[in-house]
Amino acid sequence: MQKEKTKGRGLRIAGRVYLIIVLILLYAPVAVMIRFSFNNSRANVTWQGFTLKYYKELFSDGNLWDIFFTTLFIALLVTVIGTIIGTMGAVGLRKAHFPGKKLITNSVYFPIVIPEIVLAVAMLLMFNGAGISLGLPTIVIGNVTLVLPYVYITVKARLVGMDPSTEEASMDLGADRFYTFTHITLPEIMPGIIAGAFMSFSLVLDELIITSFLTDAETVTLPIKVYSMIKKGISPEINALTTIVFLAALLMVVVYFVVSDIAGRKKKKKMA
Questions:
Q1: Three-class HEC string of 126-181
Q2: For residue range 6-40, what is the model confidence (pLDDT) as tens digits?
Q3: Is 223 in contact with 208 (CB distance < 8 Å)?
């Protein structure tokens, strides 16, 4: 009995140590980035005092904000298109039966399985072969292809856990397919849709490989801008901007969890 208690205590300690190590690996780089956004030095090597001047310079840097808003526009557009297509694909393939369904379903996972560099080169060759000029449209198409599997997987997982009898009951009571989808299916799979949208937005916001292959000289995104600054050193303004983006994303996640928690409590009260 004593050995089992000792073993259990050792496993708990090991689990906590493992959790701490994972959290350090995940958030230590973010903490360093935030810290150096307040550093009074352009070198970002040693700490030379607290300052807000780089945040002031950031808000007066029109070129950097233009690049950021271009990146944000691409991320939002890709997220909307990818979420709609991915959700429609997951819902449509759920009950469909036709020859080649398995092949189509498995092919959805290709953008996840194959390296991004391969996908980027393949799409570049496709656009060049079709005589399509590179630019914003090709960036959007390339990134939509990248995020589709993530939306499809999250929505499909939600559909698998859904009770099909609720849809059948709605149809038996006289509702058409559109009403059943909008009032029964869609609310049930909404957490999966939101999760897929968040994942898509995050992927596109920092996407470098596909975007750099499919862009033109006039369209510059934030990851491309940061990558071009590596040799000369990343400006503290970039640290300030990425800090603001990180805090905004963190706030969105917190709001989502709070709203979900409130909605869950209301649903439990109605069922009680």
A1: HHHHCCCCCCHHHHHHHHHHHHHHHHHHHHHHHHHCCCHHHHHHHHHCCCCHHHHH
A2: 666 777 888 888 889 988 888 888 888 888 888 88
A3: yes
Residue 209's CB: how many other CB atoms inside 10 A? 17
DSSP-derived 3-state class of residue 98: coil
Phi, psi torsion values for 50, nearest 5 degrees: -85, 140
Cα separation, 150 vs 61, in Å, equals 35
Separation of alpha carbons 91 and 256, rounded Å? 24
C-alpha to C-alpha distance for 3 and 12, rounded to whole angstroms:
14
220 pLDDT above the threshold of 70:
yes
Domains and CATH numbers, the chain: 63-271 (1.10.3720.10)
Cα dihedral sign, 54-56-61-64: positive
Residue 240 pLDDT grade (very low, low, confident, very high; cuts 50, 70, 90): confident
Burial of 72 (0-12, 13-18, 19+ CB in 10 A): middle
Strand partners, 50: 39
The model's pTM is 0.81
What's the confidence (pLDDT) of residue 214?
A: 94
Question: What pLDDT does residue 154 have?
Answer: 92
C-alpha to C-alpha distance for 6 and 70, rounded to whole angstroms: 57
